[in-house]
Specification:
Layout: H1 11-16, H2 30-52, E1 55-65, E2 71-80, E3 83-92, H3 98-115, E4 128-129
Helix pairs in contact: 2-3
């Protein structure tokens, strides 16, 4: 199934904009979008931790590639069932408004925490990548 990105206009519009995605009005640039995402995601992840017995250690965003266009990834570290779990996903360029993307991010994090088999043997201090 192909997920469609927000409309970037016609092919002529894309060519006029150097083949860059034209974002809907109100989404802002990477910094504004990231700030809005972090506000919503923090509330959603804190709620998740409260409901599921985890503890939010950190929620950060960083630019992971910046050659031509910015690529921003969000990273969450959660203490869950005695293990430190790390969840990282790209949030920019966006495919949804920041509030919607934050809700999706928290939902996928919850699904991973609840369904991924977390090894019980070995070094329990090493983070588990989700």
């Amino acid at each position: 199934m192909n997920e469609q990105l927000p409309s970037a206009g016609t092919d002529e519009d894309l060519k006029a904009n150097g083949n860059h995605l034209v974002l809907p009005v109100g989404w802002g640039g990477p910094q504004e979008y990231t700030d809005a995402f972090l506000r919503s995601a923090r509330r959603a992840v804190e709620d998740l931790c409260e409901r599921r017995g985890g503890e939010l250690e950190s929620l950060t965003c960083e630019v992971v590639s910046g050659d031509t266009d910015a690529v921003v990834a969000a990273t969450t570290v959660v203490l869950f069932r005695g293990r430190r779990c790390v969840f990282r996903r790209g949030i920019w360029p966006p495919s949804h408004p920041a509030d919607t993307r934050a809700a999706i991010y928290a939902s996928v994090l919850e699904e991973r925490l609840l369904t991924r088999e977390i090894p019980q043997l070995g070094d329990v201090t090493s983070p588990v990548d989700l």
